[in-house]
Amino acid sequence: MKRPPLVRSLAQLLAVTVALLCAQLLAAPHIVALQSEHSQLVISPERHEAIKPYSRLNAGDVLDIAADGSLQIVWISEGRQESWRGPARLTLGATQATEASGRQPAATRTLPPAMRDALAQTRSDLRQIRQLGAVSNVRSSRLPERVSTNYASWRAGSAASDPAADLYLLHEQLQISDWAGAQQTLARLQQLDPNNAELQAASQALAAALAPSTPETSAP
């Protein structure tokens, strides 16, 4: 049965709209809040929302960092990492942030591609851990040599409080179901960011999943 012209036109318009939205999403810069302490997203002058660790941000977002706050942001495609201390008001651009008073970030660096790819998956990695059922076969799998080498190099070259190298390691451990190793890495990440609720929830979920077994641990 042939559809009326109006129905066909509406269907075509809907298809074009969806295609445009998808193109905009793909073109939008992938910006991630890696660490957030007393930092807020400004929705409107009357409405602010706390920035959760690993949440995705958008170009054009305005962020407020309290006097005792800090924020670490990563532009995944470019690999640019910025560390900010409050008080500060930031406006996010496609490749970097600008501060209202003209201040520069406390530190910047460019992350290697493998680390960027891992950081883009951090939220889904932690979700995977939270959704784990009981793990019956717990063992520490051997990481590929390139991963161990990358981690050792990137950890040594990072600030003591920077979690990026350990988030990379966690991502690689999940790829090979190294639950015992992942548990160790989560413990280290919590030491770096003890108030991080996302890490706490993942750590508790993994501990519950491993409870029936006694894991054999090993260093990365």
SSE layout and pairings?
Elements: H1 5-27, E1 31-44, E2 47-50, E3 56-57, E4 62-75, E5 80-85, E6 88-92, E7 97-99, E8 107-110, H2 113-119, H3 122-130, H4 145-156, H5 164-175, H6 179-192, H7 197-210
Antiparallel strand pairs: 1-2, 1-3, 1-4, 4-5, 4-6, 5-8, 6-7
Helix pairs in contact: 2-5, 3-7, 4-5, 5-6, 6-7
Question: Your description of this structure?
Answer:
The chain has helices spanning 5-27, 113-119, 122-130, 145-156, 164-175, 179-192, 197-210, and strands at 31-44, 47-50, 56-57, 62-75, 80-85, 88-92, 97-99, 107-110. Strands 1, 2, 3, 4, 5, 6, 7 and 8 form an eight-stranded antiparallel sheet that branches. The chain is globular, with a radius of gyration of 21 Å. It is of the alpha+beta class and 220 residues long. 41% of the residues lie in helices and 24% in strands. The protein contains seven helices and eight strands. The protein folds into two domains: 31-110, no CATH class; 113-210, no CATH class.
State the gist of this model.
With 220 residues, this protein is an alpha+beta fold.
H-E string: HEEEEEEEEHHHHHH
Q: How much is the average pLDDT?
A: 87
> What's the total number of strands?
8
Distance between the termini: 63 Å
Total of domains: 2
Helix segment tally: 7
Uncertain segments: 18-27
Judged by helices, strands and strand pairing, the structural class is alpha+beta
**Could you estimate the helical fraction of the residues in percent?**
40-55%
